[in-house]
Design goal:
The complex is a heterotrimer of chains A (429), B (285) and C (445). By secondary structure, chain A is an alpha+beta fold. Chain A is built from 14 helices and 14 strands. In chain B, helix 1 (13-22) links the parallel strand 1 (3-7) and strand 2. The chains are: A alpha+beta (429), B alpha+beta (285), C alpha/beta (445). Chain C: Its EC number is 1.1.1.100.
Chain lengths: 429, 285, 445
């Protein structure tokens, strides 16, 4: 059933800072610094200095305790009116897209007229945690009222308790890293090394081409001396990628390398959304509409499904709600967490058994036209600062659809830790 | 004529302070005619970031209002430590500071920083001198600073006192900052200003202070940072340092934006009548 | 920083030395301040014969709240002399009789403005001689003036007297601090001359495109135009995105990242201006680069890149900008003294900047441009304390600072103020002019 929405939520533009490799130029920039920079570029591009927006929704996957109000702090450090409200969301790598859906929903409902959705992540300036044992003992010391009690509690600390931990890319319930999870899925779907390398090389080539065409001139603002995604290798080829050693999976069948997996990166992105009336009042061009979004989760803990396969479930539900088929799109943006993620997802949609058994469909969703996939590059080339990826994709896709013309359609699919997947449909204006 | 001396890197302040401590008694009534110039200074982004973070500025590509001052400070100290400089470096107290930013400076601007001393004059409580710092980018004068120091001593009661500081804004604090005990060491690590009065209670006591005191230019930078991004664009600030901030401590930030000229101040949270600094800020727009 | 003579002789020992040795000591120039008076003092207005322009100037001054003086005194800060009616060189005696005594007591940062008619339109040989003489006199006065004063000539075409007000205002004000010994040509206006409601906001409601706005003179231009009321579209390379955003946000304008040499740069500016601001009124072509080398050693790409950025890009962008700019708009190009006087090691740069002057003259007379009532003018900065001039070797640079009648380098804001003046709607009678902002530099005089 399609519910007629009271009004449409328009995507008016976006901005991001170039993504930097871990410990690169942004090594010491905090999430707040980077998100502020992304906001400042957006504010400058759309002349929003001093403007009170409906809200700014941001967030980061890896956050310091001090950043409990990260987005609000970034707003206060920006040129936006300090009266602009803000909040943080965390839905792993789906954060940025989820935020765009949240803002668009509020716009559709008439609760707000405008908003910014975005996200930021740093793999460099990560918080350091003490071991769980030490943390509990330290908290106990802190609770004591007298010095003697404090000293007693302090004596309970054993040398073995001391150690630090940084947030790892590991699923708490399985103890497996995301790459190890993905290796299982890739093996299950028979994704070859060659296919993965091909996808990775194309991602780099497409991103390089997009830069050459000036595609990012109005999507990006230089930061700390970096003007292009640092991870980009314009001369990347399948042959070069083939030389890399596998890093995930074991033995003979291991196919996943550093070249066909996204590297750890730092960066931030932001997307401006608004009602059509607000856009007109502010002389802003509607680039696209955020039509609808869907989130799915899978049970990866008990081995029923791959960790990053949730989008494969979210997309058919979204298509059904919108009365569309998988082939009704001009562009597909499937986030390249790993090359094998994209390939496994597409293979699943083509697979009769998966589509009928798992998705409960009558027939497979079918193939997608690969020439419409990630045409301006994706995460393998650009990098993937977790919460920033959604904003990157939404802004780029909105621009592509605007260039394509009214009525054009784009599909976004982003997998996330915890076995979740966030997907959305954009329509060109 | 002015003697121009160029430096390709800033003199080490630790050495300068040691030299100053060992220097004999100073006297005289003329200033050295030297102009010390740090040439082709490329901004170290790590250093910039550390400074931005410590002083509360946003971490971005724009140089904070006060940043060129710390690039020029080693030259100031070098000049003041010299035997040709009539006042003792160790006894100088920074009383006022004026900065004009002519254009927004960016991290990729290559700066020349020139420092000279001028206007040695009498004051009711001693003698005053101005250390003038000029920053240029490829010859374009982009930033100037004037730091006024007093050497307390036999003053001339009839001498001019200079411009009166405006009153510290009254009313409730806009913010309250806890300044940690090691703030002086943190700022010393960034600015190079290892003057013992800032480093540790013991070294400060040796210099006649009850505790370590915060660097004046940190308190000024922190206050300016609290006034928002516009301070880094074309603007002029005047700061008057009143009572030193003993570390650790809590200070209240007070601001009055109702007039064209923004006035801000810092006062002790527990004893509001203790005023640490007051500053005025004029921005181009 | 290099040894700064101006700074040296202004303070401390330098001051004493300069006084003893009789070296020129630069005066702090009077620059425009929002809310300030047009000129801090009275203005002596006189004329030869009928002096129709003098009458206009008296009205203008009383409207601006400036007292008109009839005789020299220390409270006189400016002299405006109307010589439009001179018939023979003998009539120039009026100038000697009025300006001579006035100079003795003229207040610091004073102004001398002599208004004449173009020699080309003289009806007799004697009249042409007298008219041409004015420029020579004023240039000499500029060199004789002390205390940061300037002297300029305004040549008003027959029947174009009504258009003189804006120029006189500009020249009396602090906006023209570093403009001296220039000849302003006032012709019949290309559109309606409209005085602003508030002379502190002469660009209120206007939208201005400034290229190369992320730094240096470009940022100063954006600042100045915004101060005068314009909404700024700040244009610069994507690589300068961070600083560009800072400028745009500080001024409440918009940032547009593009390479001016791109084929579609003009179209992109138009698209941005129309979509965001409903059009644009002012274009300042400021983006420029230098790639200095002696001509003998200049390779093709060094040659080409300078011409591409500094000249060809403007020609290309104008093809899109001129049809789109609002009627009555203003285009201002940034030339350079190097384009007038030439400079060793700068053949490519001089070519581009001289080309800008030719382009300015030709475009101002273009039918389509005239039909839309657009003015096209250029500024040629002299020794301005900027990155460009710093590429000049040390000795030349120091001499550059001194080799002008004001004994100091100009500031980026001085260039920006003249650009702002060219963008006034009150100023539709000045077009096709190239004005040097050089403090009467000796080079290329």
């Amino acid at each position: 059933m399609t519910t007629a929405s009271p009004r449409r939520a328009a995507i008016l533009g976006g901005n991001r800072i170039p993504f930097a490799r871990q410990f690169g130029p942004y090594a010491n920039a905090s999430n707040q610094d980077m998100f502020t920079a992304a906001l400042e570029g957006l504010v400058a591009r759309y002349g929003l200095a001093g403007e009170r927006l409906g809200e700014v929704v941001g967030g980061a996957v890896i956050k310091h305790a001090r950043d409990f109000n990260l987005t609000r702090e970034a707003v206060l450090g920006s040129s936006l009116a300090p009266e602009t409200t803000a909040y943080d969301v965390q839905q792993a790598c789906g954060t940025g897209l989820e935020n765009a859906i949240l803002v668009s929903n509020k716009i559709k409902l008439g609760q707000i007229e405008s908003g910014i959705a975005g996200g930021v992540d740093t793999a460099s300036d990560a918080p350091i945690m003490v071991t769980e044992k030490l943390r509990r003992k330290l908290l106990k010391i802190n609770r004591q009222k007298t010095t003697v009690d404090m000293a007693k509690s302090a004596l309970a600390i054993r040398p073995g308790d001391i150690g630090i931990e940084t947030p790892a890319n590991t699923e708490p319930r399985t103890g497996l890293s995301m790459g190890e999870h993905m290796a299982i899925t890739a093996k299950k779907w028979g994704i070859t090394r060659e296919a993965q390398d091909e996808l990775a090389a194309l991602s780099h080539q497409n991103l390089a081409k997009a830069y050459d065409n000036g595609f990012f001139d109005d999507l990006m603002t230089s930061y700390l001396g970096l003007a292009k995604d640092q991870n980009l290798r314009a001369d990347s080829t399948v042959e070069k990628l083939a030389k890399l050693k596998p890093v995930f999976g074991k033995g003979e069948g291991a196919t996943m390398t550093a070249g066909n997996s996204t590297p750890l990166t730092d960066g931030a992105s932001a997307v401006l959304l608004g009602s059509e009336e607000w856009a007109a009042e502010h002389n802003l061009t509607v680039q696209a509409y955020l039509v609808d979004g869907e989130v799915a989760a899978v049970d990866y803990v008990h081995g029923d499904e791959g960790l990053l396969m949730a989008p494969a479930y979210a997309v058919p539900r979204l298509l059904a709600r919108q009365g569309l088929s998988l082939q009704d799109f001009d562009y597909y943006e499937i986030h390249e967490a790993f090359a094998s993620t994209v390939l496994s997802t597409m293979k699943a949609w083509e697979d009769e058994e998966f589509c009928t058994q798992r998705l409960g469909l009558e027939k497979p969703l079918g193939s997608i036209d690969r020439s419409k996939l990630n045409v301006n590059g994706s995460s393998l080339a650009a990098g993937h600062p977790f919460a920033a990826t959604g904003g990157r994709i939404v802004a780029s896709l909105a621009k592509m659809l605007h260039e394509k013309g009214p009525g054009s359609r784009g599909l976004i699919s982003i997998c996330a830790a915890g076995g979740q997947g966030v997907v959305a449909i954009l329509e060109g204006a | 004529m002015t003697q121009k001396e160029t430096f390709s890197e800033a003199p080490s302040l630790a050495k300068v302070f040691v030299r100053a401590a060992l220097a004999g008694k100073k006297s005289g009534s003329t200033l050295p005619a030297s102009e010390l110039v740090l040439t082709d200074h490329k901004v170290d982004r790590q250093h910039l970031m550390d400074y931005q973070r410590l002083c509360g500025f946003g971490v971005d590509d724009v140089l904070p209002h006060t940043y060129p001052h710390i690039l020029g400070f080693p030259l100031q100290a070098e000049l003041m430590a010299r035997s040709s400089f009539p006042l003792p470096l160790a006894g100088l107290v920074h009383t006022e500071n004026t900065i004009t930013v002519r254009r927004t400076l960016n991290a990729d601007d290559v700066l020349d920083i020139a420092v000279h001393a001028e206007d040695l004059r009498e004051h009711p409580k001693g003698r005053l001198v101005d250390l003038v710092t000029e920053a240029t980018v490829d010859g374009e004068s982009v930033w100037s600073g004037r730091s006024t120091y007093i050497a307390r001593g036999k003053g001339n009661p009839d001498a001019e006192r200079g411009a009166e500081a405006p009153p510290v804004p009254q009313g409730i604090a806009a913010a309250q900052w806890s300044l940690p005990g090691d703030l002086g060491r943190q700022y010393a690590a960034v600015s190079g200003d290892v003057n013992p009065i800032h480093m540790h209670p013991l070294t400060a006591k040796a210099m006649g202070f009850p505790k370590a005191i915060a660097h004046g230019m940190w308190t000024s930078a922190r206050t300016l940072a609290a006034l928002g991004r516009s301070v880094n664009g074309p603007s002029t600030s005047n700061v008057w340092f009143k009572k030193p901030v003993l570390l650790p401590s809590k200070v209240d930030f007070v601001v009055d934006r109702s007039q064209a000229l923004t006035v801000a101040g810092l006062r002790a949270t527990r004893k509001p009548e203790t005023e640490h600094l007051v500053l005025t800020l004029e921005t181009a727009h | 920083m290099a040894f700064n003579y101006g700074q040296f002789v202004s303070g401390g020992i330098g001051k004493q030395l300069a006084t003893t040795l009789g070296l020129p000591r630069p005066t702090k120039l009077r620059r425009h301040k929002v809310g300030g008076s047009l000129i801090p003092g009275e203005v002596l207005v006189a004329g030869h014969g009928e002096a129709p322009v003098a009458e206009r100037v008296r009205h203008l001054l009383s409207d601006a709240g400036v007292k008109v003086a009839t005789s020299p005194s220390t409270s006189v800060a400016g002299v405006v002399l109307d010589l439009t009616a001179v018939e023979t060189p003998a009539d120039l005696e009026t100038l000697r009789g009025v300006v001579g005594p006035a100079l003795k007591t003229l207040a610091p940062t004073g102004r001398v403005i002599v208004i004449g008619r173009p020699p080309e339109s003289a009806t007799s040989v004697a009249q042409a001689a007298a008219r041409r003489a004015v420029e020579g006199i004023v240039r000499s006065i500029g060199k004789e003036m002390r205390g940061g004063g300037t002297a300029n000539t305004v040549l008003v075409a027959e029947g174009a007297d009504a258009g003189v007000d804006a120029t006189v205002r500009f020249l009396l004000s602090g906006r023209s601090a570093y403009v001296s010994a220039q000849v302003f040509h006032v012709a019949k206006p290309v559109g309606d001359v409209a005085a602003p409601a508030d002379w502190d906001k002469p660009l209120a409601g206007k939208v201005a495109v400034v290229t190369g706005a992320a730094r240096g003179i470009g940022a100063a231009i954006a600042d100045t135009l915004a101060r005068d009321g314009a909404t700024i579209i700040a244009v610069d390379m994507p690589q300068a995105g961070g600083p560009l955003a800072e400028v745009a946000n500080r001024l409440g304008g918009t940032a547009l990242q593009l390479d001016v040499t791109a084929e579609d740069a003009g179209a992109k500016i138009v698209e941005h201006a129309q979509a965001r601001h409903g059009g644009f009124d002012i274009v300042v072509h400021n983006a420029g680069i230098t790639r200095d080398k002696l001509l003998a050693n200049t390779e093709a790409d060094r040659w080409d890149s300078v011409l591409q950025v500094n000249l060809l890009s403007i020609l290309r962008m104008n093809e899109a900008l001129i049809p789109a700019i609002n009627d009555g708009g203003h285009i201002v190009n940034v030339s350079s003294i190097a384009g007038i006087a030439g400079n060793r090691g700068q053949t490519n740069y001089a070519a581009s900047k001289a080309g800008v002057i030719g382009m300015t003259q030709s475009l101002a007379a273009d039918k389509a441009v005239l039909k839309k009532g657009i003015t096209v003018n250029a500024v040629a900065p002299g020794f301005i304390e900027t990155e460009m001039t710093a590429k000049v070797p040390f000795a030349t640079r120091e001499v550059g600072r001194l080799m002008n009648s004001l004994s100091q380098g100009g500031q980026p804001v001085d260039v920006a103020e003249t650009i702002g003046f060219f963008a006034w709607d009150a100023n539709r009678a000045v077009t096709g002019n190239t004005v040097r902002v050089c403090g009467q530099m000796l080079m290329g005089a």
